[in-house]
Amino acid sequence: MKKQTYDYLISKGLLPNLSGFELIGSAIEKCSEDRKHLHQICKLYSTLSKECDCTSTCIERRIRRSIERSGSKRTNSEFIAY
Q: How are the residues of the chain apportioned to helix, strand and coil, as percentages rounded to the nearest 5?
C-alpha cells in the first residue's frame, strides 16, 4: 500500500490493525487507477476477494466494520470515493 494512502486512512481514524484497513487501501488504489470501480462497487469487492482468497461478502463486511470503527457515518463506496 502506498504511504499516502496509509497516512490518509490513519488520518480518517482507521486503525492499521483492523482487518479491513488493507482492503480499504487496496480499494482506494484500484479506484484511483480506474474510476469505474466507484460505480461498480460489487465488482470491486469481487476483484479484492480473488486477491484475498475470501468471499466478496466477507470483503464488504470487513470494509464496513472498519469504517464504522473509525466513527464515520459514510457507506463503503462513499468512504472509498471520498
A: 70, 0, 30
3-state SS string for 14-79: CCCCCCCHHHHHHHHHHHHHCCHHHHCHHHHHHHHHHHHCCCHHHHHHHHHHHHHHCCCCCCHHHH
Q: Does the pLDDT value for residue 39 go beyond 90? A: no
**pLDDT tens profile 6-22:** 898 999 899 999 889 99
For residues 22, 23, 26 and 28, what is the CA-based torsion angle, rounded to 10 degrees?
-110
The whole-model pTM stands at 0.88
- 19-29: string of b/e by CB count within 10 Å (b at 16+)? ebbbbbbbbbe
